[in-house]
C-alpha cells in the first residue's frame, strides 16, 4: 500500500474515488455517502470530508510538476466565496486558452493581496513570465504589478491592460467554478475552503484537458488511473 494511505481503514482506490468525485461533480458529502451505500460500502460523510481535506491539496501538489505556466497572456480577476457566513475574495488567473493558472483565497481586496496572488502564480513557473496581464480597473493591480516590475519579478515590458470586457472569459470561468462550490453552502473556515477549492480547481484543470498529454501517455487516457499513478495506487 502507498505510504500516503498508511493507517486508513478503506482501500486507497475508494478514498481516491470519493475525493475525485466530490471535487469534480456537484455532490455533497451526504450524496457520496448514499452513492457508496448503493455499492455496499458504509462510509460516513464526515470520513469523506476528512479524505477531501487531506487528499485534495495533496493531488494539487502532485500535479504541479507537470503544469508549467507557459501562456504569455494572463487574465486576472477575483470573485467571492462565503466562509463562516462572511464573503472572502478568491483571486483567480487563466491563460489565453482558458487554462487555469492559479488561485488565492484572501480576506482582503488590497494591493498586498493582489501582489501575494501574482507572486504565488509566478513562483509556480519561474522560467516563464507573462507579456500581458489583463485585469479590471481595480487600482490594487496597478500598484502590485508596478512593485513586481521594480523587483524584477516581472519584465519591464510586461503590459498591463485594464479593460473590463477583456476579462469576460474569466467571468465565465468563475461561474463554472461557482456551480461546484454552490452545493457546499458555505465553508466553515478559511483552511477548509482553501483545501476544498484546491481540489475543485485541479479537477477543473482535468476537465479542461490541461493534463491530457500526461493522462494519455501514462494512463491510457484514464483520468482515474492517472490520479492513481500519482499516488502509487493501481486502479483497474
List the helices and strands and how they pair.
Elements: H1 12-24, H2 29-38, H3 45-63, E1 73-83, E2 86-94, E3 100-106, H4 111-124, E4 132-135, H5 139-150, E5 159-162, H6 168-181, H7 190-208, H8 212-219, H9 223-230
Helix pairs in contact: 1-3, 1-7, 2-3, 3-7, 4-5, 8-9
Work out the strand percent. Answer: 5-15%
Mean pLDDT: 92
Query: Based on DSSP secondary structure assignment, what is the total number of beta strands?
Result: 5
Q: End-to-end distance, in Å?
A: 15 Å
Main beta sheet, described?
A: 5 strands, mixed
Provide the spatial order of strands within the biggest beta sheet: 3-2-1-4-5
SSE topology string: HHHEEEHEHEHHHH
| Oligomeric composition of the shown chains | single chain
**Helix proportion:** 40-55%
Estimate the global geometry from the Cα principal axes.
globular
Question: Structural class from helices and strands?
Answer: alpha/beta
- The helix count comes to 9
The radius of gyration over CA amounts to: 19 Å
